[in-house]
């Protein structure tokens, strides 16, 4: 199964795989529902210690042209001893996944009404004193009725609605609501139900109705989901190994200076991505930060960390590519670019158009660099279940 990652966050994942910085992920709350803050780092990376950051911040930022030898000395990257985990998917995991899928079956009865336990997809427009407000509108929001995900009064108002039905729901925001502009105020949400999903029973008929190629029975469906979960685990384990490899060379290399342009560009990118995420939920950047419990000082600190670590990683990647002769446009590069495009389920042209050619080049070169380090490594494979009980181990070169 191909991993499908939104193009918008591709370069962020690139940064995570290259920098192995601290996890800055947070969550925020919109005017009605929980809204995720776009993370600038992946959950798989190693958290940088404050001492490491302090040392990084001591590096001078240089303007204009530079020599790599004046900026960095590569650490040793040949002969790493690594352990790669192969997770064995259990029957319990397969059944839990299937139950999740069963709960996402769309109700076909046009007269069916939304009930507690159903997942409703809806569009809504919120107004206070007849005026729309920031963060109060969505065309495509999922709500599990009974989850308490939305503010009091909203979910109970949706219960009993039919697909296609539109209804006004009156609510009052809590006095201590995170978005101060609406805290304590009464609002009216005009809600339209797009679809209703409800748990189904696993039967051959249900499987056939899904029209999945080559899957017509319950047992075939279980086998397909096991294969899907195994592919996900394999991808996750591979990502963790690759992050570890890059972190090792980050830590073992010595740094003397960093290009100022790299640091400034990364800080700008960080803030622009947060602004874009905020706009996607109809929020200003200040409201977006406030709902995530962040201040401008927090933002400045995170921008600085991101800027320095990206600058560090870019200079490291340049030095590694020079040492190993890795180049954009080479046959090896073209082959890796094709693999990346397939992973993101895009054409090469779409990949560049949606992410920018420079980000794509950095990402592909990083993959090539990690591939090279892995080719020099001695890797031991450990097979484990999700309960972390080791089954067996073996070695591969």
TrEMBL record:
SUPFAM superfamilies: FKBP-like (SSF54534), Triger factor/SurA peptide-binding domain-like (SSF109998). GO terms for cellular component: cytoplasm. The keyword rRNA-binding does not apply. It catalyses: [protein]-peptidylproline (omega=180) = [protein]-peptidylproline (omega=0). It is an enzyme of class 5 (isomerase). Residues 117-199 form the PPIase FKBP-type domain. Residues 330-357 form a coiled coil. This is peptidylprolyl isomerase. It comes from Eubacterium cellulosolvens (strain ATCC 43171 / JCM 9499 / 6).
